[in-house]
Amino acid sequence: MTQPVSLVWFRQDLRVKDNPALQAANDFGTVVPIFIKDTSINAEEQPGDASNWWLHHSLTALNDRLNGHLQFFEGDPKQLIPELVEKFGANAVFWNRCYEPAAIERDTQIKQSLKETGCAVSSFNASLLWEPMSIRKQDGGVYKVFTPYYRKGCLQASSPRYPVPSPERISYSSVDNIGCSLSSLNLLPTLDWAADFTNHWQPGEKGAAKHLSDFIHNAASGYEDQRNIPSVKGTSRLSPHLHFGEISPNQVWYALIDAFEQPDNKHLDCYLSELGWREFSYYLLFHFPSLPTQNFNGQFDHFTWRNKEDEFTAWTKGQTGIPIVDAGMRELWQTGYMHNRVRMIVGSFLVKNLLVDWRKGERWFWDCLLDADRASNSASWQWVAGSGADAAPYFRIFNPVLQGEKFDKQGEYVKKYCPELARMPDKYIHKPWDAPANILAHAGVVLGKNYPKPIADLKASRQRALDAYAETKGK
User: Fold this and answer.
1) Which residue is catalytic, options 74, 224, 297, 340?
2) Active-site residue among 274, 399, 405, 412?
3) Which of 53, 95, 253, 381 is flagged as catalytic?
4) Predicted confidence (pLDDT) per residue in 332-367, tens digit
5) How far apart are CA 291 and CA 295, in angstroms?
6) What DSSP assignment string belongs to 37-69?
7) Where does residue 292 rank: exposed (0-12), middle (13-18), buried (19+ CB within 10 A)?
8) What is the mean pLDDT of the chain?
9) Residues 6 or more apart from 261 whose CB is under 8 A from it?
């Protein structure tokens, strides 16, 4: 008897372990794994160059895991999926759910069209610990503050799904490969600025497992104390792996719980709550689809941004004259990543000290981050800007000098990414403009020549931001 054929549509679930859609498809019959580069997405939502670099290598790794059976296509999935069902003679289509507004609309249309033709279709949760539609306040409303959302809504709900193992054996369909080559999707950037990424990252399921193992053995036991220090490996660095679904949050959640003997360990609770922040970002995006483009707090629609292009350009290039800001922006450019504490510092400086619209910063991160994620990126930028849900109060303006002195005391992080400051003493590494002339000369620093003078006075620009906010409150 001929076995039924199923399509498995890979999207943000580029793994074999804990993949409910793959598991269900394999149980159903023979499998045709497919990936579609979706050309129907509008230009602003298309992945940036850094994300595409990661995607190319992640798909290479997934194809290896699937023994070369992954088929690649390019086009509009709403048209392609029904066509592929017919060409492959598929009886069912399986996928894991995406939660971005455009993806939800697309998938709903595809599911409806498949059902109308009599093709079975099933979708699964493989990306979140708690799906956003399942968490509500007692009165049925939507949470807008993280702590009650996580502590009351999530932790008091059902426990996250336990990960499923890899299929013991995947039965691939014998249909011909009618897809295109991975290289023809043109995901790799044409410029060689990403060449150094391979020295820092290993996209794919194996790389994700290695990062998780390294974190558990080397950093998890001190996470709460070390996570804010950018010069040490105190964080999991799993965000790009989670975004592309090379590892599930469920795998991470239970691996961490299993690694700690004491369930009330402060480091465990702190890290799990960070996974909760990721969930909260998706929750907000699901319930408030305009989050990436519109102020969550409408009061900020009246805010007067300066948006000086030369200052924004200096920020993107790590040439602001504020050492920890410049170090962070250079880390981003060189590695496709930025330490989370530093993300908050550079974001605050852009939005509040320079009065540049948070959407410009969000867009730059979207293009440059390997872990660029629609939900996390927009929710985090709005948090920093003070316009978002559960946002930092607008008057909370990070002082980058104090932040540097607190979390990069010896300037190790700054010196790594701003080597022109490598000989500056600790006392002045975060404020070279305060250093006496002889100290600067000894360190070989000439402000305005080999390292820029600050493009903003921190005290004056802070007051300018507070004044601008005060005007907004009156409108």
Assistant:
1) 340
2) 274
3) 381
4) 999 999 999 999 999 999 999 999 999 999 999 999
5) 7
6) EETTS-GGGS--HHHHHHHHHHHHHHHHHTTT-
7) buried
8) 94
9) none
8 A C-beta contact, residue 283 and residue 412: no
Our answer to whether residue 95 is catalytic in this structure is no
Residue 130: active-site member:
no
Does residue 193 have an active-site annotation?
A: no
pLDDT tens track for 170-189: 999 988 889 999 999 999 98
Q: Chain-centre distance of CA 192, in angstroms?
A: 22
Task: Please give the structure tokens belonging to residue 153.
Answer: 């809504």
Q: Considering 45, 224, 277, 412, which one is annotated as catalytic?
A: 277
340 is catalytic: yes
Tokens standing for residue 215:
């974190």
Pairing of strands 30-38, 71-75: parallel
Q: Does the structure show a pLDDT above 90 at 273?
A: yes
**Longest Cα–Cα distance in the chain:** 87
- Extract the tokens encoding 26: 């394999």
SS (H, E, C) 265-323: CHHHHHHHHHHHHHHHHHHHHHHCCCCCCCCCCHHHHHCCCCCCHHHHHHHHHCCCCCH
